[in-house]
Amino acid sequence: MRVLVIGSGGREHALLIGLAKDPSVTELHVAPGNAGTSALATNHDVDVASADAVLALARHVDADLVVIGPEVPLVLGVADALRAAGIATFGPGAQAAQIEGSKAFAKDVMAAAGVATAHSEVVDNPAHLDAALDRFGPRWVVKDDGLAAGKGVVVTADRAAARDHAAECLESGHPVLLESFLDGPEVSLFSFVDGETVVPLIPAQDHKRVGDDDAGPNTGGMGAYTPLPWLPDEVTRQIVDDVVKPVAAELVRRGTPFSGLLYAGLAIGKNGPSVVEFNCRFGDPETQAVLALLKSPLGQALHATATGTLADLLPLEWIDGAAVTVVLAAENYPGKPRTGDVITGADGDGVLHAGTARNADGAVVSSGGRVLAVVGTGADLAEARAQAYERLATVKLPGSHYRTDIGRNALEGRISI
Ligand code: GLY
Protein backbone atom coordinates (compact mmCIF):
# COMPACT_ATOMS: atom_id res chain seq x y z
CA MET A 1 0.00 0.00 0.00
CA ARG A 2 1.37 3.44 -1.00
CA VAL A 3 0.42 6.02 1.61
CA LEU A 4 0.52 9.82 1.37
CA VAL A 5 0.43 11.70 4.68
CA ILE A 6 -0.59 15.36 4.67
CA GLY A 7 0.99 17.69 7.23
CA SER A 8 4.33 18.73 8.65
CA GLY A 9 4.21 18.34 12.43
CA GLY A 10 5.31 15.90 15.10
CA ARG A 11 1.94 14.20 14.71
CA GLU A 12 2.67 13.47 11.05
CA HIS A 13 6.19 12.26 11.89
CA ALA A 14 4.60 9.87 14.43
CA LEU A 15 2.07 8.68 11.84
CA LEU A 16 4.90 7.98 9.39
CA ILE A 17 6.88 6.04 12.02
CA GLY A 18 3.76 3.96 12.78
CA LEU A 19 3.02 3.41 9.08
CA ALA A 20 6.64 2.40 8.34
CA LYS A 21 6.27 -0.46 10.85
CA ASP A 22 3.19 -1.86 9.06
CA PRO A 23 4.24 -4.63 6.63
CA SER A 24 1.35 -3.77 4.30
CA VAL A 25 2.83 -0.30 3.71
CA THR A 26 5.30 -0.37 0.82
CA GLU A 27 5.86 3.31 0.06
CA LEU A 28 5.52 6.51 2.08
CA HIS A 29 5.06 10.08 0.89
CA VAL A 30 4.42 13.22 2.90
CA ALA A 31 3.42 16.77 2.01
CA PRO A 32 5.04 19.01 2.98
CA GLY A 33 6.80 17.06 5.77
CA ASN A 34 9.81 18.38 7.65
CA ALA A 35 13.54 17.72 8.06
CA GLY A 36 12.85 14.51 10.02
CA THR A 37 10.20 12.94 7.82
CA SER A 38 12.52 12.73 4.83
CA ALA A 39 14.31 9.83 6.53
CA LEU A 40 11.14 7.72 6.21
CA ALA A 41 9.19 9.18 3.34
CA THR A 42 9.53 11.31 0.23
CA ASN A 43 8.76 14.93 1.12
CA HIS A 44 6.69 16.90 -1.43
CA ASP A 45 6.51 20.67 -1.26
CA VAL A 46 2.80 21.13 -1.89
CA ASP A 47 0.21 23.58 -0.55
CA VAL A 48 -1.87 21.25 1.61
CA ALA A 49 -4.75 23.73 1.85
CA SER A 50 -5.29 23.36 -1.91
CA ALA A 51 -7.54 20.41 -2.76
CA ASP A 52 -6.35 20.54 -6.39
CA ALA A 53 -2.68 20.39 -5.38
CA VAL A 54 -3.21 17.50 -2.94
CA LEU A 55 -5.31 15.58 -5.47
CA ALA A 56 -2.65 16.07 -8.17
CA LEU A 57 0.03 14.78 -5.76
CA ALA A 58 -2.09 11.79 -4.69
CA ARG A 59 -2.50 10.86 -8.36
CA HIS A 60 1.17 11.49 -9.12
CA VAL A 61 2.35 9.10 -6.37
CA ASP A 62 -0.53 6.70 -7.11
CA ALA A 63 -1.58 6.73 -3.44
CA ASP A 64 -3.72 3.85 -2.18
CA LEU A 65 -4.45 5.84 0.96
CA VAL A 66 -4.18 9.52 1.89
CA VAL A 67 -4.02 10.37 5.61
CA ILE A 68 -4.78 14.01 6.40
CA GLY A 69 -3.17 15.14 9.65
CA PRO A 70 -4.07 18.82 10.26
CA GLU A 71 -7.50 20.40 10.64
CA VAL A 72 -7.08 23.17 8.07
CA PRO A 73 -7.19 20.97 4.92
CA LEU A 74 -10.01 18.93 6.48
CA VAL A 75 -12.14 22.02 7.19
CA LEU A 76 -11.39 23.24 3.66
CA GLY A 77 -12.76 20.02 2.12
CA VAL A 78 -9.57 18.38 0.88
CA ALA A 79 -10.87 14.95 2.00
CA ASP A 80 -14.08 15.51 0.02
CA ALA A 81 -12.11 16.22 -3.17
CA LEU A 82 -9.95 13.11 -2.74
CA ARG A 83 -12.93 10.85 -2.00
CA ALA A 84 -14.83 12.27 -4.97
CA ALA A 85 -11.86 11.20 -7.11
CA GLY A 86 -12.12 7.65 -5.72
CA ILE A 87 -9.04 7.83 -3.45
CA ALA A 88 -9.30 6.18 -0.02
CA THR A 89 -8.88 9.03 2.46
CA PHE A 90 -8.47 9.08 6.23
CA GLY A 91 -10.11 12.26 7.53
CA PRO A 92 -13.60 13.73 7.57
CA GLY A 93 -15.23 15.85 4.89
CA ALA A 94 -15.67 19.59 5.40
CA GLN A 95 -19.12 19.33 6.95
CA ALA A 96 -18.22 16.75 9.61
CA ALA A 97 -14.93 18.63 10.24
CA GLN A 98 -17.05 21.53 11.51
CA ILE A 99 -17.04 19.62 14.81
CA GLU A 100 -13.65 21.33 15.20
CA GLY A 101 -14.00 24.19 12.71
CA SER A 102 -16.91 25.81 14.54
CA LYS A 103 -17.27 25.63 18.31
CA ALA A 104 -20.92 26.70 17.89
CA PHE A 105 -21.58 23.76 15.52
CA ALA A 106 -19.96 21.37 18.00
CA LYS A 107 -22.21 22.69 20.79
CA ASP A 108 -25.28 22.19 18.60
CA VAL A 109 -24.30 18.59 17.80
CA MET A 110 -23.63 17.88 21.48
CA ALA A 111 -26.99 19.34 22.53
CA ALA A 112 -28.80 17.17 19.97
CA ALA A 113 -26.79 14.10 21.05
CA GLY A 114 -27.40 14.70 24.77
CA VAL A 115 -23.69 14.98 25.54
CA ALA A 116 -22.51 16.75 28.70
CA THR A 117 -20.50 19.90 28.00
CA ALA A 118 -19.93 23.34 29.48
CA HIS A 119 -22.78 25.86 29.38
CA SER A 120 -21.95 28.37 26.63
CA GLU A 121 -23.06 31.45 24.75
CA VAL A 122 -21.99 32.70 21.33
CA VAL A 123 -21.31 36.43 21.11
CA ASP A 124 -21.07 37.95 17.63
CA ASN A 125 -21.88 41.57 18.45
CA PRO A 126 -19.34 43.61 20.49
CA ALA A 127 -22.26 45.57 22.01
CA HIS A 128 -23.44 42.38 23.76
CA LEU A 129 -20.03 41.39 25.11
CA ASP A 130 -20.08 43.03 28.56
CA ALA A 131 -23.52 41.75 29.50
CA ALA A 132 -22.53 38.27 28.36
CA LEU A 133 -19.28 38.35 30.38
CA ASP A 134 -21.34 39.27 33.45
CA ARG A 135 -23.27 36.02 33.09
CA PHE A 136 -20.00 34.03 33.41
CA GLY A 137 -17.13 34.02 35.93
CA PRO A 138 -15.45 33.85 38.39
CA ARG A 139 -13.31 32.07 35.77
CA TRP A 140 -13.90 32.95 32.14
CA VAL A 141 -13.33 30.59 29.23
CA VAL A 142 -13.22 32.56 25.98
CA LYS A 143 -12.86 30.68 22.69
CA ASP A 144 -12.34 31.98 19.19
CA ASP A 145 -15.11 30.27 17.18
CA GLY A 146 -12.75 29.51 14.28
CA LEU A 147 -9.52 27.52 14.01
CA ALA A 148 -6.67 28.97 16.05
CA ALA A 149 -4.09 26.18 16.39
CA GLY A 150 -4.84 25.69 20.09
CA LYS A 151 -4.09 29.32 20.85
CA GLY A 152 -7.61 30.74 20.50
CA VAL A 153 -8.63 29.79 24.03
CA VAL A 154 -8.13 31.98 27.06
CA VAL A 155 -9.02 30.63 30.51
CA THR A 156 -8.66 33.30 33.17
CA ALA A 157 -9.95 34.68 36.46
CA ASP A 158 -9.15 38.17 35.17
CA ARG A 159 -12.28 39.66 33.60
CA ALA A 160 -10.29 42.34 31.76
CA ALA A 161 -8.06 39.69 30.13
CA ALA A 162 -11.16 37.71 29.13
CA ARG A 163 -12.70 40.85 27.65
CA ASP A 164 -9.53 41.76 25.72
CA HIS A 165 -9.33 38.32 24.11
CA ALA A 166 -13.04 38.33 23.21
CA ALA A 167 -12.81 41.85 21.76
CA GLU A 168 -9.76 40.85 19.70
CA CYS A 169 -11.62 37.85 18.20
CA LEU A 170 -14.67 39.99 17.43
CA GLU A 171 -12.50 42.67 15.82
CA SER A 172 -10.97 40.07 13.53
CA GLY A 173 -14.48 39.10 12.44
CA HIS A 174 -14.82 35.86 14.44
CA PRO A 175 -17.69 35.22 16.85
CA VAL A 176 -16.57 34.17 20.33
CA LEU A 177 -17.86 31.45 22.56
CA LEU A 178 -18.06 32.12 26.30
CA GLU A 179 -18.13 28.97 28.40
CA SER A 180 -18.52 28.07 32.03
CA PHE A 181 -15.27 26.69 33.46
CA LEU A 182 -15.09 22.90 33.70
CA ASP A 183 -13.22 21.68 36.72
CA GLY A 184 -11.36 18.38 36.86
CA PRO A 185 -8.40 16.69 35.17
CA GLU A 186 -8.44 16.66 31.39
CA VAL A 187 -8.41 13.63 29.10
CA SER A 188 -7.82 13.39 25.37
CA LEU A 189 -9.55 10.32 23.97
CA PHE A 190 -9.01 9.57 20.28
CA SER A 191 -11.33 7.21 18.40
CA PHE A 192 -11.28 5.87 14.87
CA VAL A 193 -14.76 6.61 13.63
CA ASP A 194 -16.43 5.34 10.47
CA GLY A 195 -20.07 6.38 10.54
CA GLU A 196 -21.46 4.86 13.72
CA THR A 197 -18.53 2.47 14.27
CA VAL A 198 -16.23 3.73 17.02
CA VAL A 199 -12.86 2.19 17.97
CA PRO A 200 -11.20 4.06 20.86
CA LEU A 201 -7.44 4.36 21.26
CA ILE A 202 -5.86 4.65 24.72
CA PRO A 203 -6.54 7.86 26.67
CA ALA A 204 -3.83 10.49 27.02
CA GLN A 205 -3.37 13.79 28.81
CA ASP A 206 -2.02 16.92 27.14
CA HIS A 207 -0.24 19.79 28.94
CA LYS A 208 -1.58 22.87 27.21
CA ARG A 209 0.00 25.74 29.13
CA VAL A 210 3.49 26.83 28.20
CA GLY A 211 5.12 26.60 31.64
CA ASP A 212 5.60 24.10 34.45
CA ASP A 213 2.67 23.75 36.84
CA ASP A 214 0.35 25.07 34.12
CA ALA A 215 1.76 28.59 34.18
CA GLY A 216 1.49 30.99 31.26
CA PRO A 217 -0.63 31.07 28.12
CA ASN A 218 -2.18 28.17 26.22
CA THR A 219 -0.19 26.55 23.42
CA GLY A 220 -0.86 23.83 20.88
CA GLY A 221 0.38 21.38 23.57
CA MET A 222 3.73 21.11 25.38
CA GLY A 223 3.74 17.41 26.21
CA ALA A 224 1.57 14.38 26.88
CA TYR A 225 1.57 10.96 28.48
CA THR A 226 -0.43 7.77 28.12
CA PRO A 227 -2.11 5.73 29.56
CA LEU A 228 -3.63 7.58 32.51
CA PRO A 229 -3.03 5.67 35.77
CA TRP A 230 -5.73 7.72 37.53
CA LEU A 231 -8.51 7.05 34.98
CA PRO A 232 -10.49 3.83 35.54
CA ASP A 233 -11.27 1.82 32.36
CA GLU A 234 -14.92 2.17 33.26
CA VAL A 235 -14.71 5.96 32.77
CA THR A 236 -13.08 5.48 29.36
CA ARG A 237 -15.97 3.18 28.43
CA GLN A 238 -18.41 5.81 29.69
CA ILE A 239 -16.76 8.43 27.44
CA VAL A 240 -17.08 6.11 24.44
CA ASP A 241 -20.71 5.20 25.18
CA ASP A 242 -22.03 8.56 26.39
CA VAL A 243 -19.95 10.97 24.32
CA VAL A 244 -18.23 9.57 21.22
CA LYS A 245 -20.90 7.15 20.02
CA PRO A 246 -23.82 9.61 20.40
CA VAL A 247 -21.88 12.33 18.54
CA ALA A 248 -20.94 9.91 15.74
CA ALA A 249 -24.60 8.83 15.51
CA GLU A 250 -25.79 12.45 15.44
CA LEU A 251 -23.43 13.25 12.54
CA VAL A 252 -24.80 10.23 10.67
CA ARG A 253 -28.38 11.41 11.41
CA ARG A 254 -27.53 14.82 9.92
CA GLY A 255 -26.31 13.17 6.72
CA THR A 256 -22.66 14.13 7.37
CA PRO A 257 -21.07 10.96 8.78
CA PHE A 258 -17.64 11.31 10.31
CA SER A 259 -14.79 9.28 8.84
CA GLY A 260 -11.37 9.55 10.45
CA LEU A 261 -10.11 10.36 13.91
CA LEU A 262 -12.49 12.00 16.35
CA TYR A 263 -10.68 13.64 19.25
CA ALA A 264 -12.73 14.19 22.39
CA GLY A 265 -11.15 16.55 24.92
CA LEU A 266 -12.91 16.19 28.28
CA ALA A 267 -12.72 17.32 31.86
CA ILE A 268 -13.54 14.65 34.43
CA GLY A 269 -15.58 16.55 37.00
CA LYS A 270 -17.58 15.42 40.00
CA ASN A 271 -20.57 14.70 37.74
CA GLY A 272 -18.47 12.64 35.32
CA PRO A 273 -16.90 13.45 31.95
CA SER A 274 -17.86 16.69 30.25
CA VAL A 275 -16.64 17.78 26.81
CA VAL A 276 -14.21 20.67 26.56
CA GLU A 277 -13.72 20.37 22.78
CA PHE A 278 -13.83 18.07 19.81
CA ASN A 279 -11.16 17.96 17.15
CA CYS A 280 -11.51 16.33 13.76
CA ARG A 281 -7.99 14.85 13.66
CA PHE A 282 -5.24 13.27 15.76
CA GLY A 283 -4.06 15.53 18.60
CA ASP A 284 -0.55 16.86 18.77
CA PRO A 285 1.47 16.00 20.91
CA GLU A 286 -0.75 13.19 22.32
CA THR A 287 -0.41 11.18 19.07
CA GLN A 288 3.35 10.92 19.50
CA ALA A 289 2.81 9.14 22.85
CA VAL A 290 -0.29 7.10 21.92
CA LEU A 291 1.13 5.66 18.68
CA ALA A 292 4.38 4.73 20.45
CA LEU A 293 2.35 2.07 22.29
CA LEU A 294 0.27 0.80 19.35
CA LYS A 295 1.11 -2.81 18.50
CA SER A 296 -1.48 -3.33 15.75
CA PRO A 297 -0.60 -2.33 12.16
CA LEU A 298 -1.44 1.38 11.84
CA GLY A 299 -1.84 1.41 8.05
CA GLN A 300 -4.49 -1.30 8.19
CA ALA A 301 -6.47 0.58 10.86
CA LEU A 302 -6.34 3.86 8.90
CA HIS A 303 -7.26 2.08 5.66
CA ALA A 304 -10.19 0.28 7.30
CA THR A 305 -11.49 3.60 8.65
CA ALA A 306 -11.05 5.28 5.27
CA THR A 307 -12.84 2.52 3.36
CA GLY A 308 -15.82 2.06 5.69
CA THR A 309 -14.69 -1.35 6.96
CA LEU A 310 -13.69 -0.38 10.51
CA ALA A 311 -16.27 -2.79 11.96
CA ASP A 312 -14.21 -5.69 10.51
CA LEU A 313 -10.89 -4.53 12.00
CA LEU A 314 -9.35 -6.85 14.60
CA PRO A 315 -9.31 -5.29 18.11
CA LEU A 316 -6.41 -2.90 18.56
CA GLU A 317 -3.48 -4.27 20.57
CA TRP A 318 -1.26 -2.14 22.79
CA ILE A 319 2.20 -2.50 24.30
CA ASP A 320 1.98 -2.76 28.09
CA GLY A 321 3.70 0.22 29.65
CA ALA A 322 3.68 3.98 29.24
CA ALA A 323 4.81 6.67 26.83
CA VAL A 324 5.67 10.31 27.43
CA THR A 325 6.29 13.03 24.88
CA VAL A 326 7.93 16.36 25.68
CA VAL A 327 7.81 19.24 23.21
CA LEU A 328 10.89 21.38 22.63
CA ALA A 329 9.67 24.85 21.66
CA ALA A 330 11.48 27.74 20.04
CA GLU A 331 12.32 30.93 21.90
CA ASN A 332 9.25 33.14 22.37
CA TYR A 333 6.68 30.38 21.54
CA PRO A 334 3.63 30.62 21.82
CA GLY A 335 4.32 34.15 20.65
CA LYS A 336 6.06 34.68 17.32
CA PRO A 337 8.82 32.05 17.52
CA ARG A 338 12.45 32.68 16.70
CA THR A 339 13.37 30.46 13.73
CA GLY A 340 16.44 29.58 11.68
CA ASP A 341 18.60 28.31 14.58
CA VAL A 342 20.71 25.22 14.00
CA ILE A 343 19.58 22.17 16.02
CA THR A 344 22.00 19.42 17.00
CA GLY A 345 21.17 15.96 18.27
CA ALA A 346 17.82 15.85 16.47
CA ASP A 347 18.47 12.51 14.81
CA GLY A 348 18.35 10.29 17.90
CA ASP A 349 15.82 7.59 18.75
CA GLY A 350 12.45 8.98 19.79
CA VAL A 351 13.18 12.49 18.48
CA LEU A 352 10.24 13.44 16.28
CA HIS A 353 10.43 16.55 14.15
CA ALA A 354 7.78 19.26 13.88
CA GLY A 355 8.99 22.81 13.09
CA THR A 356 12.23 21.82 11.38
CA ALA A 357 13.73 22.40 7.95
CA ARG A 358 17.17 22.21 6.33
CA ASN A 359 19.19 25.30 5.56
CA ALA A 360 21.33 25.81 2.45
CA ASP A 361 24.19 23.85 4.10
CA GLY A 362 21.92 20.89 4.83
CA ALA A 363 21.86 21.53 8.58
CA VAL A 364 18.62 20.99 10.52
CA VAL A 365 17.20 24.36 11.64
CA SER A 366 14.12 25.47 13.55
CA SER A 367 11.25 26.66 11.36
CA GLY A 368 8.27 26.83 13.73
CA GLY A 369 7.12 27.22 17.34
CA ARG A 370 6.95 23.59 18.39
CA VAL A 371 10.23 22.33 16.99
CA LEU A 372 10.57 18.72 18.18
CA ALA A 373 8.61 16.19 20.23
CA VAL A 374 10.81 13.78 22.13
CA VAL A 375 9.20 10.46 23.05
CA GLY A 376 10.19 8.05 25.80
CA THR A 377 8.62 4.68 26.55
CA GLY A 378 9.03 2.26 29.42
CA ALA A 379 7.39 -0.30 31.64
CA ASP A 380 5.69 2.49 33.57
CA LEU A 381 5.30 6.26 33.62
CA ALA A 382 8.49 6.79 35.66
CA GLU A 383 10.60 4.90 33.09
CA ALA A 384 8.92 6.59 30.14
CA ARG A 385 9.43 10.03 31.65
CA ALA A 386 13.07 9.32 32.45
CA GLN A 387 13.74 8.14 28.91
CA ALA A 388 11.99 11.14 27.33
CA TYR A 389 14.02 13.63 29.38
CA GLU A 390 17.30 11.71 28.81
CA ARG A 391 16.69 11.85 25.08
CA LEU A 392 15.77 15.53 25.25
CA ALA A 393 19.05 16.31 27.04
CA THR A 394 20.96 15.27 23.91
CA VAL A 395 19.19 17.89 21.73
CA LYS A 396 20.52 21.44 21.54
CA LEU A 397 18.61 24.43 20.19
CA PRO A 398 19.60 27.97 21.28
CA GLY A 399 16.85 29.81 23.16
CA SER A 400 14.54 26.79 23.28
CA HIS A 401 12.35 25.82 26.22
CA TYR A 402 10.32 22.84 27.41
CA ARG A 403 8.26 21.79 30.39
CA THR A 404 10.00 19.67 33.00
CA ASP A 405 6.79 18.35 34.56
CA ILE A 406 5.15 16.28 31.83
CA GLY A 407 3.33 13.40 33.55
CA ARG A 408 4.75 14.36 36.94
CA ASN A 409 1.46 14.96 38.77
CA ALA A 410 0.16 11.59 37.60
CA LEU A 411 3.39 9.88 38.62
CA GLU A 412 3.23 11.42 42.09
CA GLY A 413 -0.42 10.40 42.54
CA ARG A 414 -1.62 14.00 42.59
CA ILE A 415 -4.47 13.53 40.11
CA SER A 416 -7.73 12.11 41.31
CA ILE A 417 -11.28 12.15 40.06
N1 GLY B 1 -3.08 18.70 21.85
C1 GLY B 1 -4.18 19.51 21.51
C2 GLY B 1 -4.60 19.43 20.12
O1 GLY B 1 -4.08 18.65 19.34
O2 GLY B 1 -5.49 20.15 19.74
TrEMBL record:
The top EC class, named as a word, is ligase
Pathway(s) annotated for this protein in UniProt? Purine metabolism; IMP biosynthesis via de novo pathway; N(1)-(5-phospho-D-ribosyl)glycinamide from 5-phospho-alpha-D-ribose 1-diphosphate: step 2/2
Start and end residues of each ATP-grasp domain: 107-307
- Pfam families, alphabetically? GARS_A, GARS_C, GARS_N
According to the UniProt entry, its GO molecular function terms are: ATP binding; metal ion binding; phosphoribosylamine-glycine ligase activity
Which Gene Ontology BP terms does the record give? 'de novo' IMP biosynthetic process; purine nucleobase biosynthetic process
What is this enzyme's EC? 6.3.4.13
Q: Which reaction does it catalyse?
A: 5-phospho-beta-D-ribosylamine + glycine + ATP = N(1)-(5-phospho-beta-D-ribosyl)glycinamide + ADP + phosphate + H(+)
Q: Which SUPFAM superfamilies match?
A: Glutathione synthetase ATP-binding domain-like (SSF56059), PreATP-grasp domain (SSF52440), Rudiment single hybrid motif (SSF51246)
Keywords, comma-separated and alphabetical? ATP-binding, Ligase, Nucleotide-binding, Purine biosynthesis
Q: InterPro entries per the record?
A: ATP-grasp, ATP_grasp_subdomain_1, PreATP-grasp_dom_sf, PRibGlycinamid_synth_ATP-grasp, PRibGlycinamide_synth, PRibGlycinamide_synth_C-dom, PRibGlycinamide_synth_C_sf, PRibGlycinamide_synth_CS
Please name the PROSITE patterns in this protein's record: ATP_GRASP, GARS
Is DNA repair one of the keywords UniProt gives this record?
A: no
Q: Looking at the keywords, is Ligase present?
A: yes
Which co-factors does it depend on?
A: Mg(2+); Mn(2+)
The family assignment reads:
Belongs to the GARS family.
The record's listing under HAMAP family reads:
GARS
In its UniProt entry, what is this protein called? Phosphoribosylamine--glycine ligase
From what organism does this protein derive? Answer: Gordonia bronchialis (strain ATCC 25592 / DSM 43247 / BCRC 13721 / JCM 3198 / KCTC 3076 / NBRC 16047 / NCTC 10667) (Rhodococcus bronchialis)
Task: Please spell out the taxonomic lineage of the organism that makes this protein.
Answer: Bacteria, Bacillati, Actinomycetota, Actinomycetes, Mycobacteriales
